[in-house]
Structures are given as C-alpha cells and as structure tokens.
Amino acid sequence: MQVQLSHLDTPCLHINAEAMERNLQEMAHVAADAGVALRPHVKTHKSPSLALRQLEYGARGITVAKIGEADVMADAGIKDIRIAYPIVGAEKLARLAKLMDRADVSISIDSVDAARGLSELGQSRKKRIPVLLKINTGLDRVGVTPPEALSIGKGIAALPGVELVGILTHEGHALHEATLDGAKRAAREAGKAMVDLAEELRKAGLNIKEVSVGSTATARAIAYVPGVTEIRPGTYIFNDLNEWTIGVATEETCALTVLVTVVSIPAENRAVIDAGSKTLTSDLLGPPTGKKGYGYVKGHPDVTIARLTEEHGMLEVKDARKRFKIGQHLEIVPNHVCPVVNLADVMYLMRNGQCERQIDVLARGKNR
Amino acid sequence: MQVQLSHLDTPCLHINAEAMERNLQEMAHVAADAGVALRPHVKTHKSPSLALRQLEYGARGITVAKIGEADVMADAGIKDIRIAYPIVGAEKLARLAKLMDRADVSISIDSVDAARGLSELGQSRKKRIPVLLKINTGLDRVGVTPPEALSIGKGIAALPGVELVGILTHEGHALHEATLDGAKRAAREAGKAMVDLAEELRKAGLNIKEVSVGSTATARAIAYVPGVTEIRPGTYIFNDLNEWTIGVATEETCALTVLVTVVSIPAENRAVIDAGSKTLTSDLLGPPTGKKGYGYVKGHPDVTIARLTEEHGMLEVKDARKRFKIGQHLEIVPNHVCPVVNLADVMYLMRNGQCERQIDVLARGKNR
Q1: Which domain does B314 fall in, by range?
Q2: A133 and A53 in one domain?
Q3: CB pairs < 8 Å spanning A and B
Q4: Whether ipTM exceeds 0.90
Q5: Above 90 in pLDDT, residue A175?
Q6: Residues 62-121, chain A: which have Cβ within 8 Å of B?
Q7: How do residues A135-163 score in pLDDT, each as one tens digit?
Q8: Closest CA to A339 of A2, A7, A13
Q9: Angle at A153 (CA atoms; ends A125, A102), nearest 5 degrees
Q10: Is B66 helix (H, G, I), strand (E, B) or coil?
Q11: Which of A254, A323, A338, B44 has its CA 20 to 30 A from that of A244?
Q12: Are A168 and A84 in contact (CB under 8 A)?
C-alpha cells in the first residue's frame, strides 16, 4: 500500500507560492499592457488548479500540445482550449470529437492533409472547427514558411468544416541568440514577419483574425509588436535555469525547486543526491549559454551537478565532507522545468516555509 | 473524462512479447550456467507483472532503487527485495519500516552514517537488517573504494540492528570502454576486484556471504568470475539502442519500441513525429559510441532523430515527402529504455501484431 508522502520526502517539487503568484501577475500585466490576449501553455504545470489560477489572472483560455492534456483541463471545466499541435489519425480525431462535446477547441495545423481530417470531423458535426495555420518563423520544427503560407492557407480555407481564423508561431529560435538583446530582436522580427504575413493573407481574401505567438523568453518583446493579438508563454509560471541564464528570470522568480537529499559523500570532491535523470531529466541548458550541469544548487553557486544516472546526481564540490552532510536537504533550480514537472505526480505549494497544499500534476504523462 | 486509449494511439510503447521472453530466458540461462543468483533490477520495466515473470524465470528476488518501487512490488506479493540505494532520513526510514512488515528487505549502503539509521530501525524491531556494502569499482557514483572498505565495513558490522551480509557494486564504468571486448575485460576486472575484496574482508573477520554485481552489458562476462554470487541486470528485459550499439543486443532483441506518428513534413529534409523529450527523453547514447540522435527509426537506418522538443521529434531525412506520409506510423528503438518507460503509464504487449494486453507501469515515477 502506498502511503501518502510528505513534502519533506525527497526528491520532490516545491513551488514558492509568492514567487509563482508574482510571475502570473507580471505576465498578465505584460499582456494587458500590450493589449494582447494571454493564452498560457499548460505544458509547464500540467495542473488544472494552476490553469484555473491563470484564467483568474485574466488569461483568455489555455494552450495545450496534446488532446490528453486538453481532456484533463476540460475535466476541470476549462472551456477555451487551443491545441497547438497537428491532430492526425483516426484515434486522435475520435478523441477530439469527444473533447469538442465539452470544450471550445481550436487547433493549429500546417498542412492541407492534416486539415482534411478536421474538415471531415467538422462536417460530421455540422460546424466549422477553428484552425490556425502554423508558421515556421525560424525554429524549423513544424509550420509552413511564410512564402508557402498563402497557398496552404487558401487550401485549408477552401475546406468545409474548418474555419481558418488565424496564424500561429512559436519563435523558439530566438533563444539560439547569444544575448538577451539578440533574442528580443529575433522575437520582434518574428512578430513583425507574422503581422506582415497576416496582412498579406488578408489582402488575398483570407479572414486572419488572430496572430498568435509564443514563448516565455520572448513574450515581453513580441507582445508589443503592433498586430500581434495573443501570446502563449508557458514556463513563466515557474521559470527555470534556462530562463534565468537567458536573462528573463532571476533566482527569486524561479518559483519551482527540486528538494533533494544528500545520500552519499563518497569522496572529498563528490556528494551524491537522490535525484537523477528520472527526476531532473537529462535536459541541458540551451546551446548559447555554454553552461554545464543539470541544475543550480541554491546557496552553492560553485557546485556543479556534473553527472546524472537515473536516480543519482553527482555534485562536483571541493571539500565535500566539510561542506555537506549525509541527510542534508538541498534545493535545486532545474535546467528545464517543464519535463521535470512531467516526471512528478505531485508538487507541494509552499508558503512561508509551510506546505499549504499538494497540487496533483493530473496531466503528467498525457503525451497522446 | 479520460477514455481508454488504444495501442495505436501514439506515442505509445510496444513490447514484442516473443523478444522479451527470449531476453528473460537468455539471462536466466546465463545466471544458471554461471551458477550465480539472478536478481533483476526492476527500474527498467517498473511493472509488477513483469517482475513476477522474472521470478518465474528463476530470479531469486528483485532489485529496486527506491522504496516507492519496492512498495509497488510488495503490493504484488513480491517478498525478496533488495534496495540498491542508500536509505537516508526519517521519512525514508519510516516507510522502510512499513515495507519490512510485508517483504524481506536488504539494503546497500556506503557509510556508517547511513547505517546508523538502519541500525536504530533494526534494533527497534528486534532484528538485524541485512545490508551490503556498496563498492565503487570505477563508476565513481556512490560506494566506498576497495581500500576504504575494511574500515567502513567493520564500522557497519559493529552496529547492532544490522547484519553486513555482502558487498555490492554496479560496474557501469565498463561501458565507458570503446569496445565490447574492453567492456568485458573491465567487467571481469571489477568482478575480480570484488571477489578479492570479499576475501580480504572475510580474512579480517567479516562474514561476507554475497558478492553482488550488476549491469546488462557486463552480466555475461562478470557472472563467470569465480566468487561472484549474484548479478543484477535490468535493461536486458527490453534492451535498447545503447545495448545494441555496445554490441550486447541486436535489433531483434530490442523488445520495446515507441510507436509514433508522422504529424508534419514541413520541408524536403524534415519529417516531424509526435514524440519528443516527454516521450523519448533527452538521453543520448553513451560517450564511446559517438553516435548522435534520439533513437533508431526501424526500417530507416539512414534517418536521424536529430532534435527533440518536448512533444516533437525532428527527423533528418532526404526526400522526406517521398519517403513518409503524414499519419504514417514509425517504430523507434529508444536510446535508453529505462527512463522512457518511466514516462509511460502503460505499455502494450504485442504478439504476432496483435495487442495481447496492456501492462500498467505501476512504479512509474516512484522516485522516492
């Protein structure tokens, strides 16, 4: 029988409630100030209670990647759900149909092929499913390039059962810039390219109402590009070492830490914690940072989490036996918080050093 | 409401039942042939039903890293559980006490400090908890070095409430060798060092009954070192691209694949699958291989899974639009199967192309 674990049983995730609330407030302010809608990506927290908190802060709706995430959010009564992911295949379309019974769903797509499945579903339900054309502004992941957008956009708009309502991008390539200024410039360029493209599509007769852009790191720059209508940041609720290293977060705004225990100090230059890749993930910091290691040990800036195996984290540290004790707790700011949360069943909401409540990561593992 | 998903709703994990059974049989044969006990590490499958299958194949007991894994296995009636991990702190000791009510637990430790907690627990229960001294034979993770073993072993043996029954190592450093022959030689050297150390400790009066060693990649070499009493391989049940690349597995013995769907072909040189780091993990292949990418696409040896974001996998491929279709399924052999399974709630046991049953990954996420 599984006992209820405590917030001191490590490794586990602690959320600093005050820091999280400030993060939510700040991004809501950015969106309001820039006059754009805020549609947070819930991939970061995967928790309906936190999505509801984002809506209380004025978010128009939420963004998800997978139908499984949307199902969990719809279970909590969230109605306005954008799936920023191509929906492909009979299984997915059947599940989407059920989701549409209880939520207002819009979907991003990047091909007429993928749009056809949605078109058939829309026709069978005698409605037009709102879709946004995904644009590749430089990340080279999914999405059509701006020169391809008109012909594919027209192809989608011509289909019955779907309504092309906008264009959408994730300007994640901005993070490949070496400096924050460079990232902001790249983000603004992406925003401008999106707005220009929307105008071009409108001139060609497409009714592009929305210009939706993404990313915590770029939101504060791209939201102010005139013509952008929506931002979809995700990580901002917690931030992480990536955002901190880029310069859009600080130690104080990193609201989620991993509480770990030193379980072994087998050498003078090595201490071992009870969190490995099954807790912290193997995600490294983004390429431009040049920084190594698997997270930041709070209070110990000279210590590197040099290696991980599945359940062990190896700290490189001078005078390990003087510095640490077996059984000591440490707090780690993870490199990339989203996949770390996705490994946890629960997070603990901490306020003034006390555990206020447990937050269930109900959409954890919902990758389908 | 969550619908029951099918084995064709991607991304999901497929187990080739025949390949898995052959893998189980082969390692059972190695152990029997070498005259050592087999105590599989269940970190790979995290599924009680598969642990029970390993016991049916003659395993003496199981190995786990965390108490949470042990709890799940004990729930399934498994009695002989070795925790190859230092148990540190009040929360863990309280949970260990409950676990000991229903299973025979032995524990590996590498310090007198960690042994003291176990000693108090053992005394309070008027029994001696079996412990094994963890030895660092070269991996430089946890464990004492052979020269330190005698004094620490004596310190542990002198404590009431614990019984030092053996020594234990994980010779994972053997995988840093450039060749399989090199890895086997390093494994045999580690085995010999363990046997020699056991003899030295015995001469000094310690009652070392067990010499336990680990690892799928090294088991077939180290099991035959005279004096070794137990092997603890984990990955062998499924194998993965790491084991295949090292040379101890083949495509045919890689029993677990990730079924994915091509969701976008946005460029002639790129196809995108619906599995990213939240499915395949960011684990790369071990350093000596020099190979890149995030898994092997079956039937497409020239295709590289070049980049992952959380829910996208970017395939580098020539003539992507001729080669693949949107909606097409692909099967991927993951780099490192253990953390991949740890991201899944279920696996599908496939036989002759049919889904025989769903296997719940009940110890998924049990990192505490």
Answers
A1: 256-360
A2: yes
A3: 206
A4: yes
A5: no
A6: 65-66, 68, 71-72, 75, 85-86, 88-89, 91-92, 95, 98, 110-111, 113-114
A7: 999 999 999 999 999 999 999 999 999 99
A8: A13
A9: 30
A10: coil
A11: A323
A12: yes
